[in-house]
């Protein structure tokens, strides 16, 4: 595993182009485009204000920089550096901005969600979409880029609008049976739209592409409901994480629950492996090479860590949330399927230091990773069943079915990894700190520091 | 009493003792004795009259004095009036009699008292006994009552416990619902606050806009319009376009459904195949029992009949039925269930038979056991063979290792090997040297031949060229002119150019073409000048 040097970035804005060749980062009001393999700066653009959001177009030719404070969007071209485009929303303000799947239209959501403006870069034409809903996830594009689903709120009722991205023609407009629609998501095959209600009511509705209601699922009443929803990449499963610390899996044929995964505080009676991170404290007063230690500098303060396999039963530390606050820190907030749909990684906000990995073939718990600090972010490798996670410290953790490894990020001055992103080829990782970023290049063969086979 | 009469004539002591026995026996028989006191006294009177006769008066007197003394009446003594006289002094006798009467009366009173006491006591005893039994009965009753009450108390306690647990669950549920309500309320209030804040912001912005009135128009400023991503032109929005969108949408939906249906059908077919196979195997397992079970029960043969019937009638017709027919599916699952039940019964029976009758050599047990044992034998042989093989290999390996450590033979062997190799190498070197020499020789020959060839070729070419030139010159009409050209080889071209420039040029050109056609290129390029000069040298002297 090789680590690149550390570069500056602001606002966690650092994205790899969809074709995997370029890396764009925002530093204050500048946009820096580098080559991914050599990390040399290819282009440098200057925006008018500090960039709030940055996005690549789908063909990797253009980059969108949105400045929400000023209500401006600037688009830069990679091929022609002197091509410029500036979209000014005027006094109506800007809350979010994104590309359309064809890379030629920009959708701006105005302040107070008054409307969504669709700007065409081909014709400079403008279209408006009225009454968009301000919710957790109100707009979703299907994976093939043909359709867009948008949540609408009109006369205190929720509707879903399905647009054809080709010419923004409204294909379907139907009412949903939700009290307060919180989000919608297309299935990866683009034929089913999952719509879920706010946390006050547990309700997940499944609509077909042509607007028919296929099924409704509600696990229980009254208690706080759905927190997160995720489709498996094969579209076979829909995973629903809720505030009762359980994940329920629906199957795509009958849309009924096939299993539920629970997250108990005491893990017992399971064939899963529990990896616990243990810190190896370096002997500060040791006789061997004290000079070496001092010259290592930052490593004196960065403790090495390794994973140990704990025998069952294992107790996971639980933090009880404040019951009076809204949106309590309890329940399954993050769900992620691996690219082959074989594994599902979940995180329970109650047990913020643990990541649970479930095997979808056996429908059982595969592994639990317990860290020393709260897990910030985890993401699956786009090609292999390999999970990378970070916990806000200077280490990077990798899990694969063969084992688990903890890698120290070798930077000076302590680089705290806040979030990470895989490169689309699965060969490298982009680690983002507060103000810095670093690239990690993987070896083609994995190293397994801690493997369940060794200890069995 | 008859006895006493008989004994009265015996000695005085015996009479005295018998009398004292009569009067002083303090036993319970006194009751009886006292009842019969009067007749007894009468009889005793007759005994007393027999006690004292005229003969033994003084003895009697002395005896009676003794008795009186013993009774404590020492004051009164009976005396005889005179010795030898049969009369008694009356006063002491009467006193004594009076004392005795008194004593008697006292004792009678005592006796009465005692009897009365006894009666009273017996009645109280009876009373107490009765009350005792009554109390015992009462006690039993109360004990029974108590146990009954205990029982009811226990039941009530149980009821209390269940009610308490119900109450606890209810309380828990109430608490849970309360917490749910609280969280919902906090969520609602949070949402409401958020909406209020947004409304406030809206109002502010609206007021700001109304005040400012400087509406910044929204605009896009693009250097140049981009082409579409797929390079096509933009289409007009027509109804045809909208219907085509609909068509596309339905097409994609349909294809998705078809794909899923296909996969489901495949899965279905697989599962059906598996079920059929399972059924066949189960039938196979159950059927070989038929020729071997002599002592089998009646229902076994019944099962066999069923199986046969099924096997014959079932499969063929079923295969021909539509695979997706509901009826066929049901039939298959039912038959599988039936077979499974039979198999299970069979296995259970085997188990029970195995545990109860271990010695029973029924055929169906022998065959599997035999085959089992055969298998075991075979495997043992195999294992033995493998072991031997491994052992042999080990030995060989050991041998080899051992021989390598034996210095003399090892060295010798090594020597032999290296000698052999040396010999071989020498041989090969020799061959190689020979071949090299041959090759050198050949190469030399070849080069010499090539040089010779080159020279010969050159000569030949020269000859040819001269011949051709002669031929040509004989053909041309300008033969006489050439005689005037100078013999100076160097200026041949210039002179010929000067005088007959066209001809010379023409000639050189023809020659050149001829040469080029005839001579090989290399020779031409190498020796162009030479041939020309040579040819001109040949040309001009002519």
Automatic annotation (TrEMBL), chain A:
Q: Name one GO cellular component term.
A: MWP complex
Superkingdom of this protein's organism = Eukaryota
Which Pfam families does its entry note?
WD40
Checking SUPFAM superfamilies in the record gives: Tricorn protease domain 2, YVTN repeat-like/Quinoprotein amine dehydrogenase
Q: Which residues cross the membrane?
A: none
- The protein in question is named WD repeat containing, antisense to TP73
The record lists the organism as Amphiprion ocellaris
Upper taxonomic classification of the species?
Answer: Eukaryota, Metazoa, Chordata, Craniata, Vertebrata
UniProtKB/TrEMBL annotation, chain B:
Question: Chief subcellular site?
Answer: other
Subcellular location(s): the record lists: Cell junction, Adherens junction; Cytoplasm, Cytoskeleton, Microtubule organizing center, Centrosome, Centriolar satellite
One cellular component term (GO) for this entry is: adherens junction
Which region ranges are annotated with the description Disordered? 286-317
Q: Which GO terms describe its biological process?
A: cell adhesion; intraciliary transport involved in cilium assembly
Taking the record's annotation, the residue ranges forming a coiled coil are: 185-212
User: Is Cytoplasm one of the keywords?
Assistant: yes
Q: Which UniProt keywords apply?
A: Cell adhesion, Cell junction, Coiled coil, Cytoplasm, Cytoskeleton
Q: Which PANTHER family match?
A: AFADIN- AND ALPHA-ACTININ-BINDING PROTEIN (PTHR46507)
**Family under the similarity heading:** Belongs to the ADIP family.
Task: Please report the name of this protein according to its UniProt entry.
Answer: Synovial sarcoma, X breakpoint 2 interacting protein a
Q: Which organism is it from?
A: Amphiprion ocellaris
Per the UniProt record, the lineage of the source organism begins with: Eukaryota, Metazoa, Chordata, Craniata, Vertebrata
């Amino acid at each position: 595993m090789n680590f690149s040097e550390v570069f500056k970035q602001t606002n966690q804005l650092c994205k790899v182009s969809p074709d995997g060749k370029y890396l764009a980062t925002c530093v204050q009001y500048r946009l820096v485009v580098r080559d991914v393999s050599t990390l040399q700066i290819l282009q440098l653009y200057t925006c008018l204000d500090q960039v709030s959001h940055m996005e690549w177009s789908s063909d990797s030719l253009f980059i969108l920089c949105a400045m929400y404070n000023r209500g401006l969007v600037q688009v830069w071209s990679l091929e022609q550096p002197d091509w410029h485009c500036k979209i000014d929303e005027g006094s109506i303000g800007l809350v979010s901005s994104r590309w359309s799947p064809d890379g030629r239209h920009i959708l701006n959501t105005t302040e107070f969600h008054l409307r969504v403006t669709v700007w065409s870069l081909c014709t400079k034409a403008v279209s408006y979409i009225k009454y968009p809903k301000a919710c957790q996830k109100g707009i979703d594009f299907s994976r093939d880029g043909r359709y867009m689903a948008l949540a609408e709120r009109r006369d205190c009722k929720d509707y879903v609008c399905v647009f054809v991205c080709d010419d923004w023609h409204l294909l379907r407009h139907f009412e949903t049976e939700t009290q307060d629609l919180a989000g919608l998501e297309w299935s990866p095959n683009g034929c089913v739209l999952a719509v879920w209600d706010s946390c006050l009511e547990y309700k997940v509705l499944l609509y077909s592409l042509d607007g028919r209601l296929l099924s409704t699922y509600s696990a229980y009443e009254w208690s706080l409901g759905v927190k997160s929803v995720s489709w498996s990449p094969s579209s076979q499963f829909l995973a629903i994480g809720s505030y009762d610390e359980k994940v329920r899996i629906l199957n795509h044929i009958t849309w009924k629950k096939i299993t539920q995964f629970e997250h108990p505080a005491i893990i017992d009676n399971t064939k899963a492996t529990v990896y616990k991170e243990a810190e190896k404290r370096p002997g500060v007063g040791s006789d061997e090479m004290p000079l070496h230690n001092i010259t290592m500098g930052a490593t004196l303060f960065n403790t090495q860590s390794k994973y140990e396999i704990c025998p069952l039963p294992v107790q996971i530390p639980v933090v009880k949330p404040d019951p009076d606050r809204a949106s309590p820190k309890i329940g399954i907030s993050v769900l992620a399927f691996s690219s082959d749909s074989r594994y599902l990684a979940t995180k329970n906000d109650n047990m913020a230091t643990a990541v649970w990995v479930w095997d979808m073939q056996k429908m059982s718990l595969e592994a639990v990773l317990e860290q020393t600090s709260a897990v910030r972010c985890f993401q699956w490798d786009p090609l292999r069943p390999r999970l990378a996670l970070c916990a806000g410290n200077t280490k990077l953790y990798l899990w694969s079915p063969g084992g688990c490894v903890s890698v120290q990020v070798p930077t000076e001055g302590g680089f705290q990894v806040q979030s990470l992103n895989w490169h689309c080829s699965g060969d490298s990782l982009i680690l983002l700190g507060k103000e810095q970023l670093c690239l990690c290049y993987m070896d083609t063969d994995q190293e397994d520091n801690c493997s369940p086979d060794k200890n069995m | 009493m008859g006895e006493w009469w008989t004994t009265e004539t015996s000695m005085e002591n015996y009479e005295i003792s018998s009398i004292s026995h009569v009067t002083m026996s303090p036993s319970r028989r006194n009751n009886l004795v006292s009842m019969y006191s009067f007749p007894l006294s009468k009889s005793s009177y007759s005994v007393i009259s027999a006690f004292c006769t005229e003969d033994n008066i003084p003895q009697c007197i002395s005896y009676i004095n003794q008795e009186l003394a013993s009774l404590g009446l020492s004051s009164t003594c009976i005396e005889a009036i005179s010795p030898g006289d049969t009369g008694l002094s009356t006063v002491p006798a009467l006193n004594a009699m009076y004392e005795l009467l008194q004593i008697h009366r006292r004792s009678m009173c005592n006796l009465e008292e005692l009897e009365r006491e006894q009666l009273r006591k017996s009645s109280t005893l009876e009373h107490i006994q009765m009350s005792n039994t009554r109390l015992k009965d009462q006690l039993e009753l109360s004990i029974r009552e108590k146990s009954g009450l205990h029982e009811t108390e226990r039941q009530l306690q149980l009821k209390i416990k269940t009610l308490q647990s119900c109450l606890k669950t209810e309380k828990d549920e109430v608490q849970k619902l309360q917490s749910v309500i609280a969280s919902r309320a906090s969520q609602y209030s949070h949402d409401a606050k958020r909406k209020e804040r947004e409304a406030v912001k809206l109002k502010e912005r609206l007021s700001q806009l109304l005040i400012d009135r400087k509406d910044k128009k929204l605009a896009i400023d693009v250097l140049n319009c981009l082409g579409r991503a797929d390079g096509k032109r933009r289409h007009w929005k027509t109804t045809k376009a909208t219907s085509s969108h609909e068509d596309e949408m339905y097409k994609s939906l349909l294809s998705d459904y078809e794909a899923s249906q296909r996969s489901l059908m495949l899965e279905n077919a697989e599962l059906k195949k598996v079920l059929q196979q399972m059924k066949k195997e189960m039938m196979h397992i159950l059927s070989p029992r038929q020729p071997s079970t002599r002592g089998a029960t009646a229902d076994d043969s019944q099962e066999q009949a069923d199986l046969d019937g099924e096997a014959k009638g079932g499969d063929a017709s079923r295969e021909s039925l539509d695979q997706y027919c509901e009826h066929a599916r049901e039939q298959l699952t039912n038959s599988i269930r039936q077979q499974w039940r039979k198999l299970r019964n069979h296995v259970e029976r085997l188990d029970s038979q195995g545990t109860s009758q271990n010695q029973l050599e029924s055929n169906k047990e022998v065959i599997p056991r035999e085959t089992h044992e055969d298998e075991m034998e075979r495997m043992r042989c195999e294992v033995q063979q493998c072991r031997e093989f491994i052992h042999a290999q080990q030995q060989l390996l050991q041998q080899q290792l051992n021989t390598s450590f034996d210095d003399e033979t090892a060295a010798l062997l090594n020597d032999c090997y290296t000698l052999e190799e040396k010999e071989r190498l020498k041989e090969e070197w020799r061959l190689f040297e020979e071949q090299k020499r041959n090759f050198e020789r050949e190469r030399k020959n070849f080069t010499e031949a090539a040089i010779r060839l080159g020279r010969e070729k050159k000569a030949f070419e020269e000859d040819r060229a001269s011949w051709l030139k002669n031929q040509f010159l004989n053909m041309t009409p300008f033969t006489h002119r050439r005689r005037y050209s100078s013999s100076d080889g160097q200026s041949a071209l210039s002179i010929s150019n000067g005088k007959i420039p066209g001809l010379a040029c023409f000639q050189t050109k023809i020659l050149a073409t001829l040469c080029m056609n005839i001579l090989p290129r290399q020779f031409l390029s190498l020796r162009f000048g030479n041939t020309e000069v040579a040819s001109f040298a040949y040309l001009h002297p002519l």
